[in-house]
């Protein structure tokens, strides 16, 4: 390892980090604090993602952020073999899954270093990795190390 290489393989994602807005900031702040937070409608109780200024279910504008377990099942996935950005090269092949969260919403997340391929319906859990001192990213991994 050269002196220019980082100890943290995830710091390369700093330049790819999404734009943080007033609407999505609580999601990213949650990850930085080590938890997955979802927007929840205060009218009908539905969780939703991505965040919006109104409830997808009932249209109410009273929304709050709550920490959730964010376990779920694989709804669909692809296995990526081509590095579409140099930052992804160390991780290929990697899986990108659409996870049906137990709380309701579907969310996209990468799954890295899988020893056996996942299948649709497999149980997964969140894996939060720090990018730097302020930001973290949401990945998924097989539930309970299975
Ligand atoms: Zn609602």
TrEMBL record:
Domain of life: Bacteria
Domain ChsH2 rubredoxin-like zinc ribbon intervals: 28-63
Entry-linked Gene3D superfamilies: 6.10.30.10
Pfam families, alphabetized: OB_ChsH2_C, zf-ChsH2
ChsH2 C-terminal OB-fold domain sequence ranges: 65-128
Protein's name according to its UniProt entry: DUF35 domain-containing protein
């Amino acid at each position: 390892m050269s002196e220019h290489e980082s100890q943290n393989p995830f710091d390369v994602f700093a330049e790819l980090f999404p734009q943080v807005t007033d609407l999505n900031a609580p999601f990213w702040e949650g990850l930085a604090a080590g938890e997955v937070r979802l927007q929840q409608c205060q009218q009908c109780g539905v969780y939703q993602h991505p965040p919006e200024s109104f409830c997808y279910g009932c249209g109410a504008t009273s929304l709050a952020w709550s920490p959730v377990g964010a376990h779920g099942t694989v709804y669909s996935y692809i296995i990526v073999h081509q590095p579409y950005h140099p930052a992804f090269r160390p991780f290929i092949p990697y899986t990108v899954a659409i996870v049906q969260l137990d709380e309701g919403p579907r969310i996209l997340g990468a799954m890295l270093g899988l020893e056996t391929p996942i299948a649709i319906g497999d149980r997964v859990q969140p894996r939060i990795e720090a990018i730097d001192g302020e930001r973290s990213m949401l990945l998924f991994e097989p539930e309970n190390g299975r």
